Amino acid sequence: MNILGINAYHGNASAAIVSDGRLIAAVEEERFNRVKYAAGFPAQAIRYCLKEAGLTLGEIDHVAVPRNPYARLGTKLFYALRMPSFARERAKVLVKVQGIPEALAQAFDDDRKKIRAQFHRIEHHKAHLASTFFVSPFEHACLLSADGLGDFASTMWGIGIGNRMEIDGAIVFPHSLGLFYSAVTQYLGFPKYGDEYKVMGLAAYGQPEQLELFRDIVRFQNGSAGNGFKLGLDYFSHHRTGPEMSWAQADKTPTLGKLFSEEMERRLGPARATDQTLEQRHRNLAASLQARLEEVYLGMLRKLAARTGLKAICLAGGVAFNCVANGKIFEATPFEQVYVQPAAGDGGLSVGAAFFVWHQVLGKPRSFVMDHAYWGPGYSREEICRAVESSGLAQKGCAIAELKEEELMKRAAAIIGGGKILGWFQGRAEWGPRALGNRSIVADPRRPEMKEILNRRIKHRESFRPFSPSILAEATGEYFEKSHPSPFMTLAYPVRPARRETIPAPTHVDGTGRLQTVTREANPRYHALISAFRDLTGVPVVLNTSFNDNEPIVCRPEEAIECFQRTQMDALVLGDFLITRQWSRESSEVDSMLRRT
Ligand SMILES: [Fe+2]
Fold it and tell me: Does the pLDDT at position 477 exceed 80?
């Protein structure tokens, strides 16, 4: 039985196919149309998933859409009367969502009548919860989804038992931890959709000196469910105007209208303009925001743990990407096991909706665990050859060699150890926003200057944002103060003080690292690369950043070569091919590294 999940007309449009209870493919539309966080209808993502599964649209039995216009209808109508322009915008999107069967037929130039699939509408947060619990290794766990807003709710929690989820409660519009974080992110001069990451990185440079005031901006509220919070609405404007989200167009990155009010500026001081210098005041406000998010988020988790006595928690929604808060779960709550799948945000809704149908609607038993992230497109040796040949790299002075695995790993490790920057393109693309060793840029973590070099030459991003370490899973406890697996870079742990000087480049200013723990089972080739680097240097860690330059992560080999050429990357590994520039071949440091291998 084949289920197609579609997240459409919403940020991070995506598609996924689940066949007989196992995930076959999952990808976000942005990887194909090259528009970050692309909304719209994910026709290319659907086409890829069908191809990967070897299916035609006519062979799909169920289509799962993570949106239910009838959920919270009373609340929606109440606010629709108060905010007519917002209601009109929502209605336009809902009309589009209702038209998904027609959009599907149109995208595949097919007759609507040939689509025999049954369509299901799954409430946004139920799809989030399904996206984490039904692919987790747990039979019995607490569940929490928290983000900006979906189907008029911001937060939902419950329990997962086997192939069922029981929903215990939800927090509805206008109260939202995600919108709280987004509002202060905007106030701090980062207005773009997805900029919350930047503020999380900035928070480490400040002190939470305004925490008391932030406790007034988000307040605990113990309702009947005993798990609530409320926003101090004076600080916000979205409850009066509606959160102006524009994500109806596929060719645009979604945007959010202004969320904070004049009261926020009156209490916190004037908002920072995008081009204004960052002052310590801004860093302290970022720290206060992060501290309050952690208090509320970890407080909710503590209550869930106390009510259920469970030791495992599955997290989803945009807030579940807050790796700093997630890293504190072990010490701040009774939970001992945490699962966050790699597309915890809205991209993951296609997977969640599909698994919701398989288990919750059809009652099928569990048979799948998402223990790696490689569910996107992969390319054959022939496709890589064609891309290399048509690039003209050889004519431009690059050396190109096809190598056996052992030799490739030694050479790649020597290039990294010699202080060079390596593009690393292997296998199927990662699911979710993190590069996890198949579409990565890899560098030497031992060099403190590497962060600045990467930013200057390749990434062109703010200096306060940290880079991440990938570590051999078996060495995690040697370098970090916690060793619970973090295969998808969704947890940040303190680096052991004695190791902070060993891996300064991916150690953040507060001494933490947003780590990826790499096992041989999940990614044998990336594990082999880090092992080769460890054999050469004694350090089982590489710095890993996504293979891109202010764009969606590269997907095809042509895009990797284009990024390699555009930026000042030194070398590129594409499958078994090693491509090096002239200057990197002349490096005496790489030579001496190679002699040591
Ligand atoms: Fe969401």
Answer: yes
